[in-house]
Specification:
It holds the Pfam family SMC_N. The protein is of the alpha/beta class and 887 residues long. The chain has 35 helices and 13 strands. The chain folds into 5 domains: 91 residues, no CATH class; 298 residues, Rossmann fold (3-Layer(aba) Sandwich), CATH 3.40.50.300; 125 residues, no CATH class; 155 residues, no CATH class; 132 residues.
Length: 887
C-alpha cells in the first residue's frame, strides 16, 4: 500500500547500490525528481509534459543537486521486526470517526464485522496510515491526504496513534516504515485487479503484478516518462551549421570574384565560336547586327516583313483548259441535237410505242377483253386480233427507237456536265477580271452577264466569226485573259519558292537569336553574380553578427544540455530496468509457499487438478506457469487455463506467501475474503485460521459477512480460541460516530453451550450443543473423506430432503467400526464420542437431550444437569480431535 513516492525512494536506494556505477548526473536527477516528486507525478507523457517540466528543472538545479543517496528507511530483514504484535490503536477524528476511538489489538486474531459504511474501511485506513504513512486510496484518487483523511463533520483529521508489544513484552510506539510494513495488507481491490490479469495483453501483466503488491502507482509513474527529451534540448549545432554553410558560400563568392576574368574570356570564346558556326567571316557583333533588334532592325526583321506580305494565290486556269471545256460543251451539244433530229423523224413511231405501252399497262385490269371495244378475247364472239399480243409485237419492232430515246437521256446528262464545267471556268475567269478591276471591259461585262445556270448553247456567242452584238466577246478574247491568268500563276509559283527560302533563312536566324540571347544572359548573370558576390563579401561580418552571437550561445546550450540528455537517457534505462525486475524482486522465492497455499485453498479439487509446480515471473515479460499433478512436467500458462476464482486464489496465495517470506508479524485482511467465491472460502479459512501456516502472525480481518466470521469461530482450533476476539461495527445513530461493540459473545457453539451451562441455562446449552454437533459432524465427514472414507449409506425422508443428523451420526459410527484396516490415532476417540452421543452401548439421555433442547416445550421438568454436562464434555472431546483434512 506504499505510495509511488515511497517506491521511488526504494528505486533511489537501489540506484545507489555498490557496484552499480551510476554516473553522478543520473543520481542527481533521481534526487532532483524525488525532491519535486509531487509536481513531477502530476505530469504525464502526453504532449511531452514530463520532459518539458524536467528540462526546466534540470537546467535550473541539476548541477547544484547532491548526488548522495538519501537516508533510507530501515527495512525489516530475515524476520527481525521491532515488535511482535500490535497492541492499541486510537483513531479520530479520522475519516468516518468523528471523535477518538480506542481499539485493543492484543489478541492474535481480531475479527471486525459489520454492514457496509459502518467504519471498517476507516479502521483499516487508520492502520495503513499509522504503519505506512500514506493511504493508497487517497494516492490513487489524487486527493490531498488532509482532505481525504479528514472527518467531514470535524473538518480535520488527527494522525492515529498505534502501539505494539516488542519482543521483551514492552509497549512501544509503532514508527511509520512503508518499506517494512508494505506487505502486511491484503485488499479486496488488489485481488479483484489480479483476477483480471488474464484479460490484459502480455505487456501489461507486469503492471497488474505490481497492482497485486500495491506498486501500481509507481508502475504508472514510470510509464509516464517520455522515451526521449531530445525535443526539449539543444543538442545539435544547427545555428553553427547555418553559419558554416554561409561561410562556405562566402568562399564560393570569393572564388566567383577571383574567376571573373577567366569566365569572361571563356564567354568571349563561346561567342566567337557561335558566330563562326553561322559563317566563317562574321564576328559575334556582326552576327548580332545581322539578327538585329528593335532599335536597329536587321536581316531577321526584313525577312519577317517579307513573309508577312500575303503571296498571290494560284488560280489554276489555262488557255488549254478553257479551250477544252468549250470544245467539250460544243460536242455534247451537237450530240444531243443529232439524237433529237433522229427522234423527230420517227415521231409517228414514237406515238405507236406510247400506245403499245398504254395497252400493256391495261392488261392487268382488262386482260380478258379488248380495252378499246370491250370485246372478249376468247369465246364464241371474240376479237380478231389479241390487242395485247399486237402491242408486244409492235414494241419488239420499235426496240431500236427505245434505245435511241435512252441515248438521248445520256447525251443530255453529259451535255449538262460539260456546260457546268465551262460555266465554272468562266466564273473563275470572272473573279480574275474583277480582281484586276476590269469589270467595265467587254469581257468583264460579258462574264458578269452570264446566268448562274445558263441553258442551251449559251457560249455560241463567243464565236469570232458570228458576233451577235457589238460588245460580244470572242473565244480568243477569253483565251487571252486565260493566258494572263496562267502568267500570274507562274509568278505565284516562283514567289512561293522564294518564300520557302526566306522561311528557312528566318528560322536559321531565329535559332541564332536564341543562342545569342542565351550567351548574353549567361554573361549578364555572371556579371550580376560577381557583383552580388563582391557585395556579400563586403557585408558578411555585419550581416552575420547576430548569427555569430547565436552560435556562441548555442555552443553553451549544447554544453549544458548534452549531460542532461545523457543523464535522462541513463535514468530512464535504469528506472525501467528496476520496474522490469520488480516481479522478480517481489515474487522471487515464493513459488513453493504460494503453491502449497494455493493447493490448500483448493482442497476440494481433484488431486490431478492441484499444482505440482508453480513458476512465478521474474521479469515483466515472463508468464505465470504451472504444472498440474495430473500432467507432470507439462508447463502451461496459468492465466490461460485457470478460472477467475482460481486466479483469485492464486493472487491471495502469492500475497500471503510474500508476507510469510519476510516474516511479517501482521497480516490485515481488508475485506479481502469477499473477493473470493464461496466455493473456495472454506479452504481459505482452513489454510489461514485452522492450519499452522500463520501461527506466528497476528491476523486482523474486516468483513461484512457475519457468516464467514461465524465459520472462523466454529472451526478455529480449541487452543487458539482464547487468542481470538470479535468487534462489531454498526452505523451511527445521529452523532456520526460508528457504534463499536467490543465484548461480542463468542460465536463458537461449544463456547456458547459452556457459557449457558455456567449460567444454569440448560436449554440454551443444549440448543448450542445441537448446533455444535451439526458443525462437528460435517467436519468429521469431511475428515473421513480426506482419508477416502467419505462414502456413507444414508436414509433420506424423501426426494430433495437433507439427511437427518441422527442418520449421519449413525453412518459415521458404522463407517469407523467397519474400517478395520483404517488405523488412526483419532479413530478410537471418535468412536467413543459418537457412541456416547448416540447412547451406545447402553441407553442414555444424551441424544434425547440434544433433540429436546432444540424444541420449545411448555411446563416441562428441568433437564438433568449432569446429562447436560455430559453432552457438553462429549462435544468438547470431539472438538479437541484434529479433524482437519488429511490429518
Amino acid at each position: 500500500m506504499a505510495s509511488a513516492k515511497q517506491d521511488f525512494e526504494r528505486f533511489i536506494v537501489w540506484l545507489h547500490q555498490a557496484g552499480k556505477e551510476i554516473p553522478s548526473n543520473v543520481r542527481r536527477l533521481a534526487n532532483l525528481a524525488l525532491a519535486n516528486f509531487d509536481e513531477l507525478a502530476r505530469t504525464s507523457s502526453s504532449r511531452s509534459q514530463r520532459t518539458i517540466y524536467l528540462t526546466g528543472l534540470m537546467r535550473a538545479t541539476l548541477a547544484q543537486t547532491s548526488d548522495e543517496a538519501p537516508e533510507a528507511q530501515a527495512a525489516a530483514a530475515n524476520g527481525d521486526w521491532p515488535w511482535k504484535r500490535l497492541r492499541n490503536l486510537t483513531l479520530g477524528p479520522f475519516r468516518g470517526f468523528r471523535t477518538p476511538e480506542p481499539f485493543d489489538l492484543q489478541k492474535r486474531i481480531i475479527l471486525f464485522y459489520g454492514p457496509n459504511g459502518s467504519g471498517k474501511t476507516s479502521f483499516c485506513e487508520a492502520l495503513e496510515y499509522a504503519l505506512l504513512g500514506v493511504v493508497e486510496e487517497a494516492e490513487n484518487k489524487r486527493i490531498d491526504p488532509r482532505v481525504y483523511l479528514a472527518n467531514i463533520h470535524e473538518g480535520r483529521f488527527a494522525p492515529p496513534t498505534l502501539t505494539a508489544t516488542d519482543h521483551q513484552d514492552r509497549e512501544i510506539n509503532v514508527l511509520v516504515n512503508s518499506e517494512a510494513f508494505r506487505f502486511c495488507f491484503v485488499e479486496k481491490n488488489r485481488i479483484d485487479a489480479f483476477s483480471r490479469i488474464a484479460a490484459r495483453p502480455a505487456g501489461q501483466r507486469s503492471e497488474l503484478i505490481a497492482t497485486l503488491f500495491g506498486m501500481d502507482q509507481f508502475s504508472d509513474f514510470v510509464g509516464n516518462f517520455n522515451e526521449s527529451m531530445d525535443r526539449q534540448l539543444v543538442l545539435e549545432p544547427k545555428t553553427a551549421d547555418i553559419l558554416a554553410a554561409r561561410r562556405e558560400g562566402l568562399a564560393n563568392d570569393q572564388a566567383t570574384v577571383d574567376g571573373d576574368k577567366g569566365a569572361l574570356e571563356g564567354l568571349d570564346k563561346e561567342n566567337t565560336e557561335l558566330a563562326r558556326s553561322h559563317s566563317a567571316d562574321i564576328t559575334y557583333a556582326g552576327l548580332k547586327a545581322l539578327i538585329g533588334s528593335e532599335d536597329a532592325p536587321g536581316r531577321l526583321q526584313e525577312l519577317e516583313d517579307i513573309l508577312n506580305a500575303v503571296p498571290p494565290a494560284a488560280i489554276g486556269l489555262t488557255r488549254e483548259g478553257l479551250s477544252a471545256a468549250c470544245q467539250a460543251a460544243q460536242e455534247r451539244h451537237e450530240q444531243v441535237n443529232g439524237i433529237e433530229t433522229a427522234l423527230s423523224k420517227r415521231s409517228a413511231q414514237v406515238s405507236f410505242m406510247d400506245l403499245y405501252n398504254s395497252v400493256l399497262a391495261l392488261q392487268e385490269t382488262e386482260g380478258d377483253h379488248c380495252p378499246a371495244c370491250d370485246t372478249p378475247l376468247l369465246g364464241p364472239v371474240h376479237v380478231v386480233t389479241n390487242p395485247y399480243e399486237k402491242a408486244r409485237a409492235g414494241l419488239d419492232d420499235l426496240k431500236d427507237l427505245a434505245e435511241l430515246q435512252d441515248s438521248l437521256t445520256v447525251a443530255e446528262a453529259a451535255f449538262g456536265t460539260a456546260s457546268r464545267a465551262l460555266r465554272h471556268q468562266l466564273t473563275v475567269l470572272n473573279g480574275f477580271v474583277t480582281a484586276h478591276h476590269e469589270d467595265e471591259t467587254a469581257v468583264g461585262r460579258y462574264l458578269a452577264g452570264l446566268a448562274d445556270e445558263p441553258l442551251g448553247a449559251w457560249w455560241t456567242t463567243r464565236q469570232p466569226e458570228e458576233p451577235l452584238a457589238p460588245e460580244s466577246v470572242t473565244l480568243e478574247q477569253l483565251l487571252a485573259v486565260a493566258d494572263r491568268v496562267a502568267t500570274q500563276d507562274a509568278a505565284a509559283a516562283q514567289a512561293q519558292q522564294e518564300r520557302q527560302r526566306n522561311i528557312e533563312e528566318r528560322d536559321g536566324l531565329n535559332a541564332f537569336r536564341l543562342k545569342v540571347q542565351a550567351q548574353d544572359l549567361k554573361r549578364q548573370q555572371h556579371v550580376d553574380n560577381v557583383a552580388a558576390a563582391r557585395d556579400r563579401i563586403a557585408k558578411f561580418d555585419e550581416a552575420n553578427a547576430n548569427l555569430s552571437k547565436q552560435v556562441a550561445q548555442e555552443k553553451q546550450d549544447i554544453e549544458r544540455d548534452a549531460p542532461i540528455k545523457a543523464a535522462y537517457d541513463r535514468f530512464l534505462t535504469e528506472i525501467r530496468e528496476y520496474r522490469e525486475q520488480l516481479p522478480g524482486g517481489l515474487m522471487g522465492g515464493l513459488n513453493e509457499t504460494a503453491m502449497i497455499l494455493y493447493n490448500e485453498f483448493n482442497r476440494n479439487d481433484l488431486d490431478a487438478d492441484k499444482l505440482a509446480e508453480l513458476h512465478l515471473p521474474l521479469t515483466g515479460d515472463d508468464k505465470i506457469e504451472i504444472v498440474f499433478r495430473g500432467r507432470p512436467g507439462v508447463r502451461v500458462d496459468a492465466l490461460h487455463v485457470l478460472s477467475e476464482g482460481h486466479i483469485r486464489c492464486l493472487g491471495l496465495a502469492i500475497l500471503l506467501a510474500k508476507a510469510k517470506s519476510i516474516g511479517s508479524p501482521l497480516v490485515v485482511f481488508d475485506d479481502a475474503i469477499n473477493a473470493i467465491d464461496h466455493d473456495h472460502r472454506a479452504g481459505i479459512r482452513e489454510a489461514i485460521f485452522e492450519n499452522d501456516n500463520f501461527l506466528d502472525m497476528q491476523l486482523i480481518v474486516t468483513c461484512h459477512s457475519n457468516e464467514f466470521i461465524k465459520d472462523i469461530q466454529q472451526h478455529l482450533p480449541q487452543r487458539q480460541r482464547e487468542q481470538c476476539t470479535e468487534i462489531l461495527f454498526r452505523h451511527h445513530t445521529g452523532d456520526y460516530q460508528p457504534r463499536i461493540t467490543r465484548k461480542v459473545p463468542n460465536g463458537n457453539y461449544i463456547a456458547q453451550a459452556r457459557t449457558a451451562k455456567d449460567l444454569l441455562n440448560d436449554r440454551g446449552a443444549l440448543a448450542a450443543s445441537r448446533q455444535a454437533l451439526e458443525m462437528l459432524t460435517a467436519k468429521t465427514w469431511g475428515w473421513l473423506a480426506s482419508h477416502d472414507l467419505g462414502l456413507l449409506s444414508l436414509q433420506l425422508a424423501g426426494v430433495g430432503k437433507e439427511p437427518a443428523l441422527r442418520n449421519v451420526c449413525d453412518a459415521i459410527l458404522k463407517k469407523l467400526r467397519q474400517a478395520g484396516t483404517f488405523n488412526h490415532a483419532s479413530k478410537d476417540r471418535l468412536v467413543a464420542a459418537y457412541e456416547r452421543i448416540l447412547g451406545i452401548p447402553e441407553a442414555n439421555l444424551v441424544w434425547t437431550y440434544l433433540n429436546k433442547g432444540t424444541h420449545e416445550e411448555a411446563d416441562r421438568d428441568d433437564f438433568d444437569g449432569e446429562v447436560v454436562e455430559t453432552v457438553i464434555q462429549t462435544l468438547q472431546e470431539l472438538d479437541a480431535i484434529d479433524l482437519r483434512h488429511g490429518r
